[in-house]
Every structure is written in C-alpha cells, then in structure tokens.
Amino acid sequence: MDIFLYLFFFLHPAAIQVQITPAQGEISVGESKFFLCEVTGEVKDIDWYTPSGEKILHSMQDLSVSRSDEVTSTLTIYHANVDSAGIYKCVARDGEKEAQATVQVKIFQKITFQSAPSPQEFTEGDTADIVCNVVSSPPPTIIWKHKGSKIQASKDVRYKIMANGHLQIRGIKKTDEGMYTCEARVMARGEIDFKTMKVVVNVLPTIRARQFEVNATADIGSSALLACDADGFPDPIVTWTHNNVVLEEGDKYSLNEDGSELIIKDVMKVDEGDYTCIAKNKAGEKSQEVSLNVFVQPKITYLNNKTAIEFDEEVILTCEASGDPTPTISWSSESKIFTEGETFNKPVAVFHARVSSLTLKNVQFTYAGQYLCIASNSIGQDSQSVYLEVRYSPKIQGVVASYTWEKNPANLSCEVDAHPEASVVWFKDGSHLPSANTTNVKIYNMPTVSYLEITPESQIDFGNYNCTATNDLGSESKEFILIQADVPSAPDIQQVEPFSSTAMVEFKEPDSTGGVPVLKYKVEWRFPGEEWARKEYSKDDGELCSNIFYLGFTFSVSAGSSRLKGCLSCKHIHKTEHMREPSAPKLEANVADEGNSLRVTWIKQDDGGLPIIHYLVKYKAKHVPEWKPEIRVPSLSEHTTLNGLAWNTEYEVHVVAENQQGRSEPGIVSIKTAAQPTAIPGSAHGGSGLGTGAIVGILIVVFFLLLVGVDVTCYFLNKCGLLMCIAVNVCGKAGPGAKSKDIEEGKAAFTKDESKEPIVEVRTEEEHSPNQEVKTPSSEPNETTPLTEISRRPRL
Ligand SMILES: *[C@@H]1O[C@H](CO)[C@@H](O)[C@H](O)[C@H]1NC(C)=O
Ligand SMILES: *[C@@H]1O[C@H](CO)[C@@H](O)[C@H](O)[C@H]1NC(C)=O
Ligand SMILES: *[C@@H]1O[C@H](CO)[C@@H](O)[C@H](O)[C@H]1NC(C)=O
Ligand SMILES: *[C@@H]1O[C@H](CO)[C@@H](O)[C@H](O)[C@H]1NC(C)=O
Ligand SMILES: *[C@@H]1O[C@H](CO)[C@@H](O)[C@H](O)[C@H]1NC(C)=O
C-alpha cells in the first residue's frame, strides 16, 4: 500500500490522476465483482491489466472491461476462481501523459459442503464412516451434533472425528440411528454452516426354521408346509430354493406374502430332500435348511394266483410291495398266521423286505385256498389276497355198505373230493352202469357226490358196485356193497314176571337187526280163548333201554324195522295168579344168649300178589293151652326175639304173614329154652320147684313130640295120618309147596275180578315192585303199613 502511494506521487506529480474503487476486493469463489477506474483529467485511453500483466481486451473469459464515459472504465470479474486472484492495474494515457492505479483482488472459498449425503446407511456392527466433506479457505473446523448435543469423541470411545472431518462410529448399533449434524466454521470470517443427515443402521437378517424336519405322506394329494421366520432391518425378503433352484409360486408351490411359508402341493416321493429358506435385505442374507421326509404308504405291487399239484415238492407264493419306510411283509391264511422261518406242517415261510415269498413244502390238497399278503410300515399297510389252487386226484369216501330189500330203492353214495372236478362212473360186475337192460338204476351226479339209486328187483341187484372217479390227475375207485336187509331176529325174552293183572316182560334187543335199524317192537297178548290184543312200542331214543313191559297174560314181542316185520318171539304163555293171602313164612328159631330168650327168624314166601302188611307172632309153652299175646312185627322185619321165657321149657312159635286178602297159614317152629344155670341158686326163675309132676309132664311132652314126628313124617311121605286128615278137613288146601311150584310153571288160574284190559307199562329195570294200580280196598295206615311202597308210582 505504501509502495503504491509512493508510485502514484512519483509518476504523476500533477498531470493526471487515476483512482480505483473499491481500492481492494475480496471475492468468494464463483461470485462476480466489478471495479471502477476513475481518471482525473482528460485522457484518451484507460486500460486494465491482469495480474500477469496482460492487457485485458474487451472481453476475455470471465473478465470484461467497459468504458462508461471519458473518465471511467469498469473491470468486471465474473465467477471468480482461485486463478482470478492477483493485482489488477488500471493505466490512463493521453499522449505522453500516463497515470495508473492498481487494485489487489483476493479470492476466498466459503464453506461449501461437497459431500454430505443423507441418508447414509450402515450395517449394524460395522465401523460407520459418516461422510461430511466440507471445504473452505481457510479450512473450516468441523463439529458433529446428534440429538441436539455435540458429539464429544473424548467422552465416548466409539466416536472419532477423522482428519477429513468424517464421524466414525465403531460398532454402530441400531440405537445410533438418527439425524446427525455436521457443522463447519471459519474463524477468520465468522462463517458457519451445517448440514443435517440421516444415518440408517441396517441389521443383517436372522432366519429360523419352525421345524427342521417335516414329515409328509406321498401320493395322497397332501401338502407339506415348510416355514422359516426371518428378522432384520429393513425387513428381509424370504426366498426358497431346492436343489439350487429358486422356487416360484405356481402349481407346485405356493408362498405366503412375506415368503416365510412354503407350501408344497401334492407331495410326491421326489419332493423329498433339503429345502433352503433365504432371508435377504440390504445388510446381507442368511439361510437355513429344512428337510422334508416323504413317506410312502405300502402298496402291494405284485401278487399272483398260483396253481400247484398235490405232492409237488413246494409251491412259492410271492408278494412284492413298495413303500417308505420299506414295508415288512407278513402272510396269513384263513386258519393260520405264518411267521418267518417257521416250519408249520412242513410249509416254510421265507420273507425278504420288499419281496416276500411264502414257501409251502410238500404240497397237500388241503393247502388250497386264500392266502393274505400284508405289507405294513410305520404309516400304514396294504393287503391283498392270493388264491392257491391245488390240483389233486380224486379221493373217495362214503359209507361202504347199504342195506335195502327188494323193491325198496336205496342210494349208494360215492363222495368224491377232487380238483378239478372228477367224472364218476359206476360199474357192476365190470360193466358200465346204467347198462341197456337195467331200468332199476338211476345215477344222480352232484358236484361232490354221486348217488347210485338202486331199486333191487332180484337177488342179482345186490352185491358189489364199483365207483370210479377220474380227473386229469388220476383216478380212484372204491367198492360199495348193497346188502339185502333182513328182518330183525326175534327179540329174546329174558324174564316174565306175572302179577295179578300185569306182567313184567324183559327182553333183549334182537341179535341181528337185518342191516336196518329197529324201529319198533310189537307186543301181543291174549286171555285164553280170546282174540290177541296188541300194542306197538316205537323205539325212540328215550325208550332204547326200556324193553320191559308189564302186561297181562299171554304175549309175545316182535321187532320191526322200516317195512320189514320181524318174526314174533316164541310165544310165552303165562298166567297171573288169583290174589290171595300170603303163603306161610318159613321159620327158624335159636336160643338166645340169655338162655330163656328165643330169637325167631323167618323167610318171606309168596306174598299172594299183594304186599305183606305185617307179621303176627304168637307163642306158648308147649304144655300149656293158652297163647301169649300176639306180637305184631312190621313187614320189613324178618325176625323177632321172645324174652323172659321159662327155663328149660319147650315153646311153640307161630308166625303168620298178613296182606289185604288175609292171613297166611302160620309158619310153625318149636324149641326148648336152655336149662337154668346152677351158678345162680335161689334165682326167681329157678327150677327148684321142679317136682315129680314136672318130670311126668316132660315125659308126656316127649311122647307127644315123638307122636307128632311120626305123624308129620307120615303126612309128607304117605299123605296120611292125623295131620293130613286135619289139613283136608279143616282147610281144604293142598300141602305147602304146590303153590310156588305153580308159579314157576305159570299155571296159576286166571281171575276175572279185574278189568279185562290189562295195564301195560314200560318201566325202568330197577322198579320190580308189583303194579300198584290194582284196585284194592284202602288199608288204614298204621305203623306196620309202609306207605312208601304204595306211594311209589310206576314211570311211563
Ligand atoms: C418324522 O418321522 C420320523 C421317522 O418316523 C420321526 O422320527 C420324527 O419324529 C417325525 N417328525 C415329525 C415332526 O413328526
Ligand atoms: C385269483 O383267484 C381268485 C379265486 O379263484 C379270483 O377271484 C381272482 O380273480 C384271481 N386273481 C388273479 C389275479 O388271477
Ligand atoms: C338218492 O339220492 C337222490 C339225490 O339226492 C335223491 O333224489 C333220492 O331221493 C335218493 N334216494 C333215496 C332212496 O334216498
Ligand atoms: C343184461 O343183458 C345181458 C344180455 O342180454 C345179460 O348177459 C346180462 O346179464 C344182463 N345184465 C343184467 C344186469 O341183467
Ligand atoms: C373198479 O372198476 C375199474 C374199471 O373196471 C377197475 O379198474 C378197478 O380196479 C375197480 N376197482 C375196484 C376196487 O374193484
């Protein structure tokens, strides 16, 4: 400045003066400014010169000079730049006169944000470099502000303001997100400027599969859902890949809005495998794998019917099945479940995983039938049945012998089991049936049986018939015999027990039934001189053993079968008895231990057709006429004891049996009591009183006994004597024994006092008691009349 002033005064003492206004200039880069050069005095030229000394012509680039009037010239600097700075000179000339002035032009840079973008994005965790490029001259000082306060790097180590003015945040967090202000100051000018920018912190996605393993079933039209949940900032987009191919929404796949759920439609086995879900955003991407397991229900893929021939070594049934997991195969038949490797009636079951074979060894015709193959795995099962056909030669069964008689048709049945079905032919004596001259033979062929119906016409129709069954595999024949049935043999009458109005007949079944079962028995009987009465008894099960009859009089039994009548058994003629009083019981007497007691026993004889009511016992010492009081003994007893008798005395005992018809003759016995023992002298019953009279009495008795003995002997041997006389005159009866002899010979007389229709009953063996329906006057029951006997009713 001082120099310029000096120059001005030295070069232009008074002639002309030049002045530049403003005297100096500062121009911000890019701005424009002008300077006015004023001259005092008359001048011809006013010129401006650049700092480099170059005269500025009318208009150079960014520089312009214009002469506004005689004394002023204007220099305009457009869009100043750093190069524009320097000393500009204005020179005024008029001839020899010349004057000049200079002006120093300074160019400066004001605060300019060259790069301070907003928003600026970073990834969480990274070291963020927040850009704020600002220039000025002189260079600015920069401070950063966030949430209204200045960031002080000294206080938070994560922050650092770099030499270039950038703000560095180490390990930027989501919480660091927000508005940041970059402020620049130039002290020299007091200039200040700022820029606010948005800092965005992006977060790398995270992704998590809801299930790492998904199970699905193939081929049933089902869908599988795979799902991954993603997180991050900005919200990530989820995509899916399978075998490195990105899956697109379509027929096979569908995705939800954010892609997090993938639905695989109509799952097939080929869909099995790993699927990848990928979450992607600005910060990056993350992926996760999900496995899809596809299970396949078992399905039997091969199974065929088989045919085997009986006695083949083996037959193998094969079953193939697919499925995932590999199915296990099992076999069963209608009656049996096979287990692997077992030996069952020789069949062996051998199974393999996907193919299983059931081996049946030593084929029998019974193996034919259905077999079931069952394939099963963890998700299901499939089963199918297969039919094993076994071909076998005919097997003949049936009852060999059949019975019939002339004109009665009978069937020979030839039961044939064969596969394939056998054809059956019948032969008789080597010739095929039916032959031309047989009209009495019919053949009924059914699927499993052939009936040969024969109506015998003569003897030659009986005999052997040959049934021959034939199929592809062979033939079998069997003889059937047609036997002429005979009439049953006569039933053998075992026992006949005649009673007053009935008889019990016991007979054996006929020895020979003639080949056909006995159907019924016929019983015939008659009263002398009358017609035969007859009755038939069917032989049904209930009466099989009841071949016992009660009937009246003469009778016979015959057995009949079907239409054949058996011959009558020999006629048995029996007569029933009159009902009468019982026969006299047979007596026996013993001296009892006491010596003066007697024990009397008797044996029941014929009861006269009626039950014995009781026995009447009476006794007396032989030498006295009076009888002791009668003792009544129940009919079931067959003995009695007589006590307190006189010592050494002969006693006579009578026992009479009584039924409703009356009393029997007495059974008689005589016995002497023992002598009084001498060891007991003075006994009340002693024989001390036995005087001469007693001895005489004894002698009389002995004599009498001798007499009776002789008489009895006479009576039995010669039918004479006193007793005979008494018996004939008093009782009018034959001697004992005749009656029972009569019974044995069945010659008892017929009585007419009963109804003519005899009562005929069938009874079981154990009831032998005489018929109780005989009309009898009812007896007053007393202690000696057993009710049980009467109340027992016969069973029909
Ligand atoms: C899928 O199947 C496997 C094998 O059967 C089984 O272990 C697993 O638990 C199943 N997973 C699901 C999610 O059902
Ligand atoms: C197997 O045999 C059965 C019974 O004979 C029959 O119904 C079925 O059709 C047969 N199956 C095949 C595949 O031949
Ligand atoms: C023999 O068998 C055939 C066929 O079942 C039948 O029609 C006929 O009546 C039988 N004949 C006799 C006597 O049973
Ligand atoms: C059938 O007739 C022939 C000749 O006429 C005879 O030889 C044969 O015995 C007869 N057969 C029968 C079963 O009658
Ligand atoms: C049955 O007849 C056939 C043919 O005549 C013969 O081969 C077979 O031996 C006969 N069978 C019997 C058991 O007699």
UniProtKB/TrEMBL annotation:
It comes from Oryzias sinensis. It is found in: Cell membrane. PANTHER family: BASIGIN RELATED, FASCICLIN-2. This protein is a cell adhesion molecule involved in neuron-neuron adhesion, neurite fasciculation, outgrowth of neurites, etc. Residues 581-677 form the Fibronectin type-III domain. GO terms for cellular component: axon; plasma membrane. PROSITE patterns: FN3, IG_LIKE. GO terms for biological process: axon guidance; dendrite self-avoidance; homophilic cell adhesion via plasma membrane adhesion molecules. Residues 739-770 have a biased composition (Basic and acidic residues). This is Neural cell adhesion molecule 1.
